[in-house]
Amino acid sequence: MNHAASATDKASSSTRIRLNGTADAGDVLADQVAHLYGQVPFGAATSLVIGALATYELWDPRFHQVVLAWWFIVLLILLASTALYVAYRRAAGTATEAAKWLRWLAIAALANGVAWGLAAAIFFRAHTNEEQVFLSLLLVGVTAGGIPVFAASWPIYAVYAASIVVPFSYALTTFGSRLFIEIAVALPIFYAMTVLVAYRLNLVFVAGFRLRKAYGKLTEDYSALNRRIESQIEELIQAQREISAQGRKLALFVERTPIPVFELSSGGNIIDMNPAAENVFGYPASELAGRELLDALIPRDERALDARWWADFVARKQPEAGIRARGLRRDGLEVTCEYSFTPLVNDANDLISVIVQCRDITLQLEAERLKKEFTSTLSHELRTPLTSIIGSLQLVNSGMFGALAKDAAEMTDLAERNAQRLLDLINDLLDIERIESGRLSVQPEDIALDELIRESIDLNRTYAERFGVRLALCSDPPRVIVRADRKRLQQVMTNLISNAAKFSPEGAEVEVRAACEASRAVVCVEDRGPGIPEEFRSRIFGRFAQADSALTRQKGGTGLGLAICKRLIEMMEGEISYADRPGGGTSFRFELPARAQAPSAAE
C-alpha cells in the first residue's frame, strides 16, 4: 500500500508539474479526475464480466478453493471501487480535493491490477496449454483494456499495467519453456508501448481539458462583454436621449430668449444666431452665416472689440462679460451693446465654439443720460432760489426785521430747516451724479489727520446738541499725515458724525477715535443707536438706502450720505466699513494710507 501511495503521489505530482505555470491547473486536474471516475462503472462492469469468465474457464476441482479465493478478492476490489465511486459522486470534490481523489483512484487501480497479476502468477503454471493460452490472451486484453479507462492519467495506467505485467513476466520466465521466456522478454516492450500510448492519450486529454476550460472562460468573458456592451449601449441610448432633450431645451431657450445670441467658430465666424439677433441687427441668419462677427457687426474703429482682443481671448479661453461696444446694424445705424463671450472647450482644452450674448443698452444709456441731465438741470435750477429763500429766512429768524410773534417764529424756523434739508438733498444729488459720471475729482493734499478730526467735531457739535447728543474725542488721535482732499474728507466726517448724532438716543455720546495700524490711518465714529437691521445691511452703502423704521422717518435724511462717503473714500484710495458696537450701536470705520508723522506744534 505504501508503494502504491508513493507511486500515485508521484503520478499526481507529475501531473501537477506538467500543469504548473498555467492559471487553470487545478481546474484541469479536477476535470481529469472527473473523467477517470466517470470510467469507473465501465471498468468495474468489464472486470466483473471478465473475472466471472476467467473463474469459469479456470475452474478445476484441484484448485477450486484457490479460484474461489481469487474470485472473492476480485469481488472485494470491485466493491471497494464502487464504494469509492459513490463517495466521489456524493462529495462532488472541488479542484482543491482533486489530488486526494486521484490518489485513492490510483490505489484502486493498483489493487485491480494486482488481482490480475495474482491470477497470472497462480494459475499460469497450474493449468494446461489451452488454459494458459486463454489466460495469456485474457491478461493481455485486461492490460490493453486499461488504456481507455485510465488514459486521462498515464501514471495511473502505468502502475495498473505494471502490476499485471511484472507477475505475468515472472510466471513466464520461471515456467522453463523457451517460447514462454521469449514472450516474457517481449512483454516489457508491449508494456512500454501501451504506456506510451496512454501517455499520448493523456496529453490529448489534458489539451482537451485546457481547451474546454479556455473555451468556457472565453464564453464567460464573451457573455460578460456582451452584457457590458448591452449595458453601455443602453447608457449611451439614455445619454443620447438626455442630450437630445437638453439640446431641444437649449435650442428652444436660445430661440425664445429676448437677447441676441450668436455661436461663433474658433476663428470668429458666425455659425448660428437666434431670432432676437436678427431683430436687433437687421440681418437674416442665412446672410451672416460664415462671416466674421467683428467684421460684419462691429465698427472698425471700435477699440473694445478688435482683432487683437479676439486673438487674446482665443488664447486665454476664459469667459469675458460686461464688454460694452458699439454694434453696426444693417441699415447703418449704430447701437451700443453689452457683450458676454463664453468659450466652449473639450477635455483636451481645444476651443470648439464660442457663445456670444449681447444686450442692446442703447435706450438704457440714453435714458440714463437724460436722467442725469434732468437731475443736474433741476438741481441747479432749484439750488439758486433755495439759497435765496434760506438766506432770507435766516435774516428773518435772526431778528433783523424785528421780533416775530411766537407762532410766526416757529413757522419761519420750520421753513428754514426744511429748506436746508431740501438744499442738502440737492447737494447730495449733485455730488452723487458727479461721482458716478466721473466729473467729480479730488484734489489731494497733505493733511494732519488729528487737526481735521478736531475741526470736524467742533463744526458738528452744534448739530449734535440739537438732538441732545454729546461728541467726544476718545484719546489723542495720532499725529500722522494723510494724502486726501480736505473738503471731501471733511464731508465724510460730517456725514458720519451727523448720522451718529441723529440716531443716538438723547443724552448719549458719539465717540470719535483714531489710530494708526500698519501704515494705515484708521478713524472710527461710534454711536449708541438701535443698530442696523439685518435685512438692510447688504445695501447700506447704496443710493437712497434707508432702513424702513419709524425712527428713520422721524429723523429724516436723503439716503445718499453713506453712498457718497463710500465713493469719496475709495477715490482717496481708502476703505470704509461698519460693525456692531459691543453694548449696542454701530461703529463706522474708514482707513486711509498714512504717509508720515505730522510735525508737533513745538516744531
Task: Explain this structure.
By secondary structure, the protein is an alpha+beta fold. The chain folds into four domains: 2-214, no CATH class; 257-360, 2-Layer Sandwich (Beta-Lactamase); 366-437; 445-597, 2-Layer Sandwich (Heat Shock Protein 90). 62% of the residues lie in helices and 14% in strands. The chain has helices spanning 2-19, 25-38, 40-57, 64-91, 98-123, 129-150, 154-175, 178-256, 275-281, 285-288, 293-297, 307-316, 362-397, 406-437, 449-466, 486-502, 550-555, 561-571; strands at 261-264, 270-273, 320-328, 334-345, 351-360, 445-448, 470-473, 480-484, 509-517, 520-526, 575-580, 586-597. Helix 2 (25-38) packs across helix 8 (178-256) and helix 5 (98-123) runs parallel beside helix 7 (154-175). The model is unreliable at 1-23 and 547-554 (pLDDT under 50).
List segments where confidence is low: pLDDT < 50 over at least 5 consecutive residues.
1-23, 547-554
Number of strands: 12
Principal-axes geometry comes out as: elongated
Beta-strand residue percentage? 5-15%
Number of helices: 18
Provide the number of structural domains.
4
Distance between the termini: 124 Å
**Coarse structural class:** alpha+beta
- Main beta sheet strand tally, sense and closure: 7 strands, mixed
Rounded radius of gyration (Å)? 56 Å
- The residue fraction in helices comes out at 55-70%
Calculate the mean pLDDT score and round it.
79
Outline the secondary-structure elements.
Blueprint (H helix, E strand, L loop, with lengths): L1 H18 L5 H14 L1 H18 L6 H28 L6 H26 L5 H22 L3 H22 L2 H79 L4 E4 L5 E4 L1 H7 L3 H4 L4 H5 L9 H10 L3 E9 L5 E12 L5 E10 L1 H36 L8 H32 L7 E4 H18 L3 E4 L6 E5 L1 H17 L6 E9 L2 E7 L23 H6 L5 H11 L3 E6 L5 E12 L6
